[in-house]
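Field: COMPLEX_INPUT
Field: COMPONENT_COUNT = four
Field: RESIDUE_TOTAL = 1336
Field: MODE = joint
Values follow.
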Amino acid sequence: MDLRIGVIGTGAIGEDHIRRITHVITGAKVVALSDINEENAKRLASVYQAVFYQTGQELIWSREVEAVVIASWDPTHAEYVLECIKARKYVLCEKPLATSAEECLEIIDAEMGGGIKLIQVGFMRRYDKGYRKLKEIIGSGAIGEPLMVHCCHRNRIPGPQHTTDMTIKNSGIHEIDILRWLLEEEYETGQVLTVKQNRNAAVGLSDPQIMLLKTKNGVRIQVEVNMNSHYGYDIQCEVVGEKGVIRLPDPENIIRKTEGMCSYEIYADWSQRFVQAYDTELEQWVESVKKSRLTGPDAWDGYVACITADTLIRARKQETVEPVITEPQPDFYR
Amino acid sequence: MDLRIGVIGTGAIGEDHIRRITHVITGAKVVALSDINEENAKRLASVYQAVFYQTGQELIWSREVEAVVIASWDPTHAEYVLECIKARKYVLCEKPLATSAEECLEIIDAEMGGGIKLIQVGFMRRYDKGYRKLKEIIGSGAIGEPLMVHCCHRNRIPGPQHTTDMTIKNSGIHEIDILRWLLEEEYETGQVLTVKQNRNAAVGLSDPQIMLLKTKNGVRIQVEVNMNSHYGYDIQCEVVGEKGVIRLPDPENIIRKTEGMCSYEIYADWSQRFVQAYDTELEQWVESVKKSRLTGPDAWDGYVACITADTLIRARKQETVEPVITEPQPDFYR
Amino acid sequence: MDLRIGVIGTGAIGEDHIRRITHVITGAKVVALSDINEENAKRLASVYQAVFYQTGQELIWSREVEAVVIASWDPTHAEYVLECIKARKYVLCEKPLATSAEECLEIIDAEMGGGIKLIQVGFMRRYDKGYRKLKEIIGSGAIGEPLMVHCCHRNRIPGPQHTTDMTIKNSGIHEIDILRWLLEEEYETGQVLTVKQNRNAAVGLSDPQIMLLKTKNGVRIQVEVNMNSHYGYDIQCEVVGEKGVIRLPDPENIIRKTEGMCSYEIYADWSQRFVQAYDTELEQWVESVKKSRLTGPDAWDGYVACITADTLIRARKQETVEPVITEPQPDFYR
Amino acid sequence: MDLRIGVIGTGAIGEDHIRRITHVITGAKVVALSDINEENAKRLASVYQAVFYQTGQELIWSREVEAVVIASWDPTHAEYVLECIKARKYVLCEKPLATSAEECLEIIDAEMGGGIKLIQVGFMRRYDKGYRKLKEIIGSGAIGEPLMVHCCHRNRIPGPQHTTDMTIKNSGIHEIDILRWLLEEEYETGQVLTVKQNRNAAVGLSDPQIMLLKTKNGVRIQVEVNMNSHYGYDIQCEVVGEKGVIRLPDPENIIRKTEGMCSYEIYADWSQRFVQAYDTELEQWVESVKKSRLTGPDAWDGYVACITADTLIRARKQETVEPVITEPQPDFYR
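Field: COMPLEX_OUTPUT
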């Protein structure tokens, strides 16, 4: 039987998840929608033959809804997740899990209190076949122990409300999560380098920035987070090991030779780059919910990402190297 | 509602289609199976909760079956397709449509007699995003008129029953179809060059071969069909136009630098290379059947591919340049 | 001591050789010049402190001249080469050695009559490090026996006097020579495919053309000779062996990511592409002359290239497959 | 007339310069040699028909010697350079100019005292066509203002005497110089990150290291200096600008498809990678000496590189961010 999903938040990402659940993956269907933008939510409810709910809370408690996807405004994530825990429903929450580490810990306590893991956080890169292959090769020992990771996270242009903190908390957070997962290591310290300002960046936005992270084992990570690359959406990740180097390829595209140049197109935005990762994320989440055994990034991962991002933001403001200090990891999340 | 599909033939490709319809695409389900290997078909019927039918004919006429996928032994394709026409059911038939041009014409007559296009032939490359992008760029005029196409179709090793004729009729036939589609042109002549024998090829198998085709407008096509490349499955297609050249990229893969080499993996077989094409083929076929309006390669395309392959095989045996002569294309297929 | 060289012909290639001998390589100097364009030759004689000679013959017989470079108008090559033989002087003759196979044979007879190899023909690609590495890898057995070679020879635009025959005799002749050298095999047959006409090509020029060659061992060679690629000067060579494929890389150039594309520049003409090959050719020729033992392409190679080109031109005109028939190779040239 | 050069130091680099002057470039010859390894120097003097001198001083003052190349042991550079200034002879000194900033300043004072620029330091990368092209593109404005530079300097394995300081002072110093030249900016601060230790590195050698530099305009530079890459010699440089990114390509090499991989060879050491740069350096140095007007990196560049390296070494030891403080640049060197 199809898993009956309710989706809270019907903006760009929410609508994309609705489309994906309906048309791309199998084994699930969208039965309920909610959004403060009532008009849009009702329109989509009509298109997708789902029921519209006035509030996320009502949707979460609805008997029709077996599992919940949260794609609403960031500051609302925590309360909906907590409500899902109360209602004992599986939930896939878009990143961030919450806007503060305190809220994350509150969620963690509630989840542990319930005794069952219900929460998955939307770090979809863990499902990207490129990162998965990097992890597989590292695991094979082919490059020895990883020593350094060089990353670039380049957007063409940021949205109008993009802020200096969001560069870390909304964009760089993907690298914060994926590199922990890739290296299977925790962070020890973080630092942010401010860079010569790109004159194309909006007034008040410090762009680009460089995040420096050091793991407990001394692996050094540099992440260029560049919101105004101007030329395209470009995600680079190179892992330097003791006897070799591996890196993500550029996404394949037709090779052209015209007008004195050999060239290929670069993606313009993230939705093109991570199509496969989002598809696989939803697919595997649905499968795991059906088996009552989540396998993806959990609330603890959401908490660590959040506190690491906060640490980096503080480090940037203070121009210091800051220790990344987390609570002890509960056995529940091991 | 899900389209109820019956699948005839449950070998490698048939099983893959069953998996795809069930787990990958949405909007369809497999309700019926048939195969002369009764045991395997029954096993899969059990796994996929489908009904086993003793014969393809019974499956085709079953009220439970709305549309048919044929993935049985090549020589049986024609009779099943004809039966589908009689039963007025949409059918996706794996290539080849039939083993002779005469049978293809019989099918065409039957289909036209019914007054409605029911047949799609499984030339899945038309759904590959690489070929689609090549076609889009040609259409944009960015390289001027195409003048030449250089192709390679390389298998790692062929199956044990592979014959010299099959190199053209089963492997090269993909290029025969896709290049007609890409160039939107018909073939005028064909020729096959025998090549120095690969000593790794089975005794009696002439391998590799080079297919030469010329279109009515004088575009020259060369296709290396190489069943024993030894190193991998590699599909190359380069279109040379009046002011530029475009070509398929190698499929993206992790870049490694180890032991003095920079390298990336090459696919080992076709199932890896054309995953996306097969998925999209099925997905769009299901959609089009639901709209009662097929959009993919039709019986006429199956016929032209068949007669072109036959012409090339004759040209190889006679060591001549042979004209590709088809019946006049009926308006029905324009 | 520096080898004292006289250069006949001071056009573009001649002047480039003068520059190269003077400024790039060591161990030689230009002491004498001659050209029917007296003014240009005198100007260069003044710049390079060389003596101007009224005729090539005078230059050849001059006591000051130890070795001769011929870069004059193609139809004059043969008589100058014959004069060098009479004068018993080493000569590097730009390709073609002569404009007809008969003249080549006359030269061969004269050279054999003198009992010493004096002639090197300017097939500079034999000194290109890319082709040399291809040959080395073939020789290592890493790809098994070569079975096919796919080549492209693309010019951006041809000179105004370029003719349909010159496509083979002046451009394609480089592939004719280099592939014989690369494969260490002789040609058995040749054929030329006419291609849909590039509308950017001059009226009366059949462009592009495809040369097909078959070696005595059955290796199949296809060469696209394309004088109006429009986009750049591009030389491709891929050797397909029994267990692997090797090919020339595109010349390295800065990778750019700008405006939605990743790209690198392609050379505009041959002088950029083969700088290193020309330098090494001259350098090694000078060294070998000093040791009185030529090691480069000889008169026999010039003859085979000439007769193969003639065969291909005849095959094109007759639309036939023509045997490549040469005289028996004298031991003198083995 | 050939420039008469004396070479002090006949180890690997010294011998390579002797070979280059004799066989590769034109317009110069080696007339004098000196080395504390008398036997080797005498042997080379015999091979190259040069005169052996017991001491560098004697060689410098010899009437036969017009210009000097210093390729001796690093700690001896300064005294030979000072002697050349006294003798008013042009000198190309391998990097480093001296082993301390104080010595560099002494040289600078002496050179200014003589009133004429005589010294060029052997930062050969300024002559590499890749870096030159990067500089040209930056200058064209095609990528806007540079904001960041990501570099890797990877050796396969270091020599047995390699120390932690040498990683910066002997290897990273190339990046210190080339990036100042590329960006046309001075450094403001430097920092060094220690990295998880490569277990293949010698005991006591901290390897790899990451150098962080910030220019006066805020451009951020990261240089991985990795002496035990294990896989090859690999120099990477990517410049990120306001609207585009440019980077050095991997050196071109034959593309192979064998055994399931597509691959190309990576250089094993620096001598292969920078052949062209060394050749052009020598060639242009000889030309500029003949015109009595040096154009390459001068004593001031040698001083800035030295003091920047010292600053980085101090920053590493103290784990601090250190300001790069130089003397005011004299007009003499502008």
